[in-house]
Amino acid sequence: MQKSTFIYVTYIRTTPKKLWQALTQPKFTRQYFFNTTQESEWKKGAPWWLRKPDGGVCDSGEVLEIDPPRRLVLKWRNELMPKLRAEGYSRMTCEIEKQGASVKLTIVHEMDKAGSKFIESVSEGWPPILSSLKSLLETGESLEETRRWPKGM
Amino acid sequence: MKKPKLVYTTFIRSTPKKTWDAISKPEFTRRYWGGMTNVSDWKKGSKWEHHNPENEVWITGKVVESIPAKRLVLTWADPDDLKDKSRVTFEIEPMADMICLTVTHDRFQAGSKMTGKVSRGWPRVLSSLKTFLETGKGLNIFCRG
Is residue B45 classed exposed, middle or buried when 0-12, 13-18 and 19+ CB atoms within 10 A define those classes? Predict the structure, then answer.
């Protein structure tokens, strides 16, 4: 099966619980994920949405696996760009492992097709988002450029 | 068979000069790179070495390109296996209140023993570098569990 895969590993001086909260709770995601929030009941099979500041949906999907604060797997499709939406659902796996006073965070985002434009797009998005999340947890302040929804999107 | 290429991008609340100094000056590098240091005059054509705290050489190579605070390209090999050579590029891009650091490790030899080690190592080292620049203290990069 041809696949497009993006993998990012970062180590953050925090606890698994704090990282899990920052990954899922709106008061945190607004600060580093371009002012977006996630809506879900956070149970296996539950629907999942990523919403823009105006409430509109930017991405949608489903919770495939959830084991707080260790593992989260989402079905994930872009809803804003027709060409990306047409590629269908990707799979996003988030793994959190305690490593002494730090936590290892691994994001694997994959699509069952070669040359996925969606995976190319998230490959650009994840590094600044995860860098900003790390800054937020380690210094109390996210990176400025990731606090606002991009103009015109 | 497509040749492996590792590209790691991180955004750090710091300046190009501080980032360059953290990579190139032993007094900073040892504070986030597990006590290791990078030793060179960083001029194009010069030798460079990666030393452990006992000053043993763990990695060696040459400076291919050097634009301070912007771009550094090095060849990279274990001194006990110089044929297994690869290349590392550091690129520092200034942005509004931060920098974008992109590290590319490529040009591996076929069957290189380096790829596994460095693909596990770079996220540790670069995460620790970011923590060092933003908080003054690096991470314990050799910690496991």
Answer: exposed
A31 in contact with chain B, both atoms CB, cutoff 8 A: no
Residue spans of the domains in chain A: they are 4-140
Structural domain includes residue B141 = no
Residues of A in contact with B11 (CB under 8 A): 127-128, 131-132, 143, 145
A1/B contact by beta carbon, under 8 A? no
ipTM of the shown complex:
0.96
| Domains: count for chain B | 1
Per CB-CB distance under 8 Å, the chain B contacts of A143 are: 11, 13, 97-98
Residue of B13, B123, B135 lying closest to A11 (CB–CB): B123
Instruction: Provide the CATH number for the domain formed by A4-140 in this structure.
Output: 3.30.530.20
* Domain-located, residue B145: no
Contacts of A118 (CB under 8 A, 6+ apart): A4, A78, A84, A87, A90, A111
What average pLDDT does chain A have? 97
Question: CB-based contact (8 Å) between B69 and chain A?
Answer: no
Q: Tens digit of pLDDT for each residue in A104-129?
A: 999 999 999 999 999 999 999 999 99
Q: Which domain holds residue B42?
A: 6-135
Cα of B17 to nearest chain A Cα, Å: 19
pTM score, whole prediction: 0.96
Please report, for the domain that includes residue B39, its CATH number: 3.30.530.20
Largest CA distance in chain A: 44
Is B129 part of a structural domain of the chain?
yes
